[in-house]
Amino acid sequence: MEDLKSAMNEHMELMSDLVEKFSGELRTGFQPAVDNFIGFFHAIDWKEPWLIGLMSFHVALLLTSLMSRKNINFQMFLFLMALAGVYFAEKINIFLGNNWKSFAGQNYFDPHGVFLSALWSGPLLFISIVILVNSLFSLCQLIVRWKKAELRHRARLARNKQD
């Protein structure tokens, strides 16, 4: 029994060391990405009216999708419009990059579309995922109701045959 306890303790210490080393390497490996992410958001002037409007649009769209979760047809319309917004993001980026002086203090629209991907496509994809999960949940509820109705119908048929 003592051998088993000592083997377990050695194994636990070994696993603890492995977890500590792994988490340390993860922290050092992700640090440049975290620094770039923080630098990206510090480079943006968040008080610009068009950015406030963009964020307000995303919040309003998210609230609309959450409040209309029972209306599947409207949800599908929102879903398709959000995905269309993501699809046209490249064209939007080119258009805004050419006309940034009329609404922004600096040119955020690089040729690779990083800014627009982060602040336009990212939230739209998140909202699309919320709508998709809601739709899948609604479909599961519909399947359960359908199966219950089918079982009730079969039970009625079986009762009628017995009578």
TrEMBL record:
The keyword Membrane applies. It is a multi-pass membrane protein. PANTHER family: TRANSMEMBRANE PROTEIN 18 (PTHR22593:SF2). InterPro entries: TMEM18. Pfam families: TMEM18 (PF14770). One of its GO terms (cellular component) is nuclear membrane. Belongs to the TMEM18 family. It is found in: Endomembrane system; Nucleus membrane. This is Transmembrane protein 18. It comes from the Eukaryota. It comes from Macleaya cordata. The chain crosses the membrane at residues 50-67, 74-94, 114-144. GO terms for molecular function: DNA binding. Keywords: Coiled coil, DNA-binding, Membrane, Nucleus, Transmembrane, Transmembrane helix.
